Each structure stands twice: as C-alpha cells, then as structure tokens.
Amino acid sequence: MAKILMVVSAADSLTLADGTAHPTGYWAEEVVVSHQVLTEAGIDVDIATPGGAQPTVDPISLDERGNVEPGDAKEFRAYLDSLAGQLAKPLALADVTATDYDAVYIPGGHGPMEDLAHDADLGRLLTATERSGKIVAALCHGPAGVLSASGASGESGDTGAGFVFSGRRLTVFSDEEERQGGLGEAVPYFVESRLRDLGAVVETGPAWASKVVADGNLITGQNPQSSHDTARQVVQALKERGSA
C-alpha cells in the first residue's frame, strides 16, 4: 500500500504586507477532497504540521465568504469531523523521515505562506523526496511550501540560490486569482511571482478553472477547483510506479 504524507499548515493567521494579522488556516475543500480521493484509492495518508500543532481550518472555506455552497460546507465539516483524531494530533514535521513515504502532498489556504514557506523541516523533507525521485504534490497556495526547499523562503531579498525546484514546471494559485478573489495587494508576497523569481516555470490556466501540471515527479494544482484532479493525478502516478 502506498503511503502519503499530507503536510498541512498550522498557521491560524497570515501577516499581511502592512504587518497586520489576517485570520487564515488550511482550505477545507483542498484537505477534504484530496484526503478522500487518496484514501478511496487505498492509499494510507498521514497528516503532519510544523511542530505537530493542531491545524486551523480557514473559516471562510466553510461558508459563502469563500464562495462555498452550504451543502458543500456541510459535507466538508462532516469529513473534517471524521479526521478529528488525526487533526488533533498530527505528526511533527521534525519527526518525519522522507524514506517512510511514497509522496508528500501539500494542500493550500493562505496558511502555507505564513509557516510552510519558511519551515526548515519541510525543506529537508521536500529536498530528500525530490532527490529520491518520489512524488512531490502541492495544491493552490500549497506550492508556497516548496519555497522552503533550500532556503527559498519568500522573504524580500532572498535570491533563491539553490532552490530545489528551479527550472521545474508547476502551477499555483495565480496572481490573477489572488487579486480577483484572494487578499489582493494585501498579501506579503504573490506566490506565483515568487516562484517565477526563483526560476520555476509557472503555468497557469483561466482563473477558477481546474488545472494540473505534472512535471515528472512534481504534480501541482492551481486552485480549489483543481482538488479532485490533482489528487487523482497523484493516484495515477503512484499506480504507474507500482506503489498504489
């Protein structure tokens, strides 16, 4: 049976460009749909966060503020309730070994911009996973997490020297989407632009439409609408490798 490490942000706020704190967390649909698709395919999924802290769901990912229909929100809440044990006591990234997993999967929400982008333990895991040729997957704002690989933290003045994913094709919540339905110019940095600056080859599709980019072992999805397709692509990639 294949085994995936789902890395979830433990941040409950994002420090905006003006220094104020904006409530955030992980995006419900991205965790729920991804987890559901992966486990229904028979894959074992562990959840890990920085420090083993219990993650916080972004409240707007469960109501109309996040353009989430009431029926969908109800289903997401019910599924998250079924994961309550894992979410209450996730693994700590510092205690995780890359060799124990066939893939690392990072869902989004604005939370990853706050903690995962700077997390040295995640950087270690991603670097080891990439170098072993195992699957690295990230969704929506989740690719902010790959900034952690080799110190590319997203901070102003960081040149991105040694960025593990430089030259790789990927997608991410686009700058257009951030301006249309995200936090706009209030964000501390635009993840798409930051990845481009570091040498990643970013490919984005129309705003709010599903798009998945697979570049060898690197699989990324653009937005919440890409949740199903991203997880399914990971399942297919594992099957092709004989892991699922």
TrEMBL record:
Annotated Gene3D superfamilies? 3.40.50.880
GO biological process: any one?
methylglyoxal catabolic process to D-lactate via S-lactoyl-glutathione
List the GO cellular component terms. cytoplasm
KW Lipid metabolism (keyword) present: no
> What superkingdom does the record give?
Bacteria
Instruction: Supply the Pfam families for this chain.
Output: DJ-1_PfpI
Spell out the protein name for this chain: Thiamine biosynthesis protein ThiJ
Q: Which InterPro entries does this entry report, sorted A to Z? A: Class_I_gatase-like, DJ-1/PfpI, Prot/Nucl_acid_deglycase
Instruction: Please spell out the taxonomic lineage of the organism that makes this protein.
Output: Bacteria, Bacillati, Actinomycetota, Actinomycetes, Kitasatosporales
MF-aspect GO terms: glyoxalase III activity
